[in-house]
Amino acid sequence: xxxxxxxxxxxxxxxxxxxxxxxxxxxxxxxxxxxxxxxxxxxxxxxxxxxxxxxxxxxxxxxxxxxxxxxxxxxxxxxxxxxxxxxxxxxxxxxxxxxxxxxxxxxxxxxxxxxxxxxxxxxxxxxxxxxxxxxxxxxxxxxxxxxxxxxxxxxxxxxxxxxxxxxxxxxxxxxxxxxxxxxxxxxxxxxxxxxxxxxxxxxxxxxxxxxxxxxxxxxxxxxxxxxxxxxxxxxxxxxxxxxxxxxxxxxxxxxxxxxxxxxxxxxxxxxxxxxxxxxxxxxxxxxxxxxxxxxxxxxxxxxxxxxxxxxxxxxxxxxxxxxxxxxxxxxxxxxxxxxxxxxxxxxxxxxxxxxxxxxxxxxxxxxxxxxxxxxxxxxxxxxxxxxxxxxxxxxxxxxxxxxxxxxxxxx
Length: 411
Ligand code: SF4
Prior knowledge:
Number of strands: 11
Strand content: 5-15%
Distance between the termini: 51 Å
Helix content: 40-55%
Bound molecules: iron/sulfur cluster
Low-confidence stretches: 397-411
Shape: globular
């Protein structure tokens, strides 16, 4: 008999439930998998087929998965929810790649194009520093004829203006473009960027790391293998990165499982991922949806399930599961935090990419808003740096030290 779908009410009320009350209603094989992970706090020994069963969980099994992920999060990451004060700088919206899920990019002759020179990027970094940002996240479209050393020159300009600003910049797609523009070997190119101020790399441009799906989403994007090569090489150069997955378009639960296991494998080799960030597809203004090639974004069940599944699969490997709040409304972002996540990402002054695609969560969440949303669900807000190696616990929890140093996980 097919499992029933959960109602919205059930999905919104799962945080009130305890494992002992939901476990008896589960199918025994799914329960067995979850109990193993809860007991060992480690996902390594679970097979792909067992994860696939969890990724397909519905009804009582799904509710139990969410409850288990919340409990495991409490064990592995505690009650603190972290965030970083940062500014997004999208230096140009001109791009020739043509991803069908992207509503941000423009052709070079469209009216509303823009391009920032390195000094203009640096000016935005200075403004961000003056109001408390510790990180700038710099990404953009790929315009034809970009100056070969533009990415290096942006790093130089920002570091010259604000030497202590953390620069989180350039997707693997941009790195591949920089390699093409300069003719340098990948490793040498990454070392040059690192030596000019690149601190960490966004693990974006991953979407779904399966070439058949990628062919539908974007024929000109780097391949799944190229993405992995850029990330592995960056990690080997001491440049850490985030890891991402875009869900809610044409992919299936099997793609989720394969990608999460692939990322877990890379993490076991390099230790270079700081976090995993599930990115919900915003369909509204995209060609992918308008051409009938995708579903209309994720369901509530999918939003919650991907965060919960990630918490379990990454147990013992990647400890930070991030909620990408710009793609979600307030209530949903809080539910995702209760389904296994422990980080809210960045305050992101000036977030353009999701907004162009139709996201309504806004361009900026102030640290005070983050703190309020975190306290509303009974958790403790803490500002972090990009590497999660420093936390500032926010009042009124004055029994905690004002500043707490954690050991960096990656040398
Ligand atoms: S997602 Fe990035 S690479 Fe793709 S079209 Fe948009 S800006 Fe260009």
